[in-house]
Amino acid sequence: MATALSRRSAGLLILTILVGLAHHADHVLRVDHSGWPFRPDVTPFTYSLAAYPILLFALLGPARLIWLRWALLAAGTAFTLWAHTQVETPWMQYVMWAENRSLDPATAQFQNAFCIRSPGLGVAAVVISMTLNVLLSASTLSVLWDGLKRNAARSDHPG
Q1: pLDDT in tens, 49-104
Q2: Based on C-alpha coordinates, what's the Rg of the chain?
Q3: Which position among 8, 48, 137, 139 has the lowest Cβ density within 10 Å, counted as fewest Cβ atoms?
């Protein structure tokens, strides 16, 4: 089945999925910004798991739905960028590991899963999160480029 994606877009989406899995594992281990199914509470984390069906659809969906694939990817990217600047900042991610305490007032009593203080893990959490932001943005732009090229090719060869 043709997906209308370039190798660049496919590679970026695969990398995004892998880094996303690492980022979600970090969420679970930091505990304060985790949620169902790893904690009893439904939180923004729970809804963020919808990223994987969206990313897989963007990667594997049919060529004729390239614009829907791009739109869903763009919406997911926008949500992620918003969440990483408004809900769970890089500083919050860092402090949960470096100081073993949550800066989120709603989860101030939480500690990370290992109950350790590790500035190195704090830096790793931020690097993973920022890498995810960059990969999502690059993937979204790459899929947009693929869609524009597909439209241009179709208008050059009518019928």
Answers
A1: 999 999 999 999 999 999 999 999 999 999 999 999 999 999 999 999 999 999 99
A2: 18
A3: 8
The torsion angles phi and psi of 70, rounded to 5 degrees, stand at: -65, -45
* Phi, psi (deg, nearest 5) at residue 149: -65, -40
Q: What are the tokens at 10?
A: 């496919």
Say how many CA atoms lie within 13 Å of 113 toward its Cβ: 12
For 139, the token pair is 């993937």
Per DSSP, helices labelled H in the chain are 7-30, 44-48, 51-60, 66-82, 90-98, 119-156
Residues 96 and 30: beta-carbon distance below 8 Å: yes
| Cis peptide preceding 158, ω within 30 of 0 | no
Three-state DSSP at 84 gives: helix
- Asked whether the whole model's pTM tops 0.90, one would answer yes
Q: Cα(first)–Cα(last) distance of the chain, in Å? A: 20
Instruction: Give the other-Cβ count within 10 Å of 47's Cβ.
Output: 13
Residue 155, classified by CB atoms within 10 Å of its CB into exposed (0-12), middle (13-18) or buried (19+), is exposed
Structure tokens at 61: 């969906």
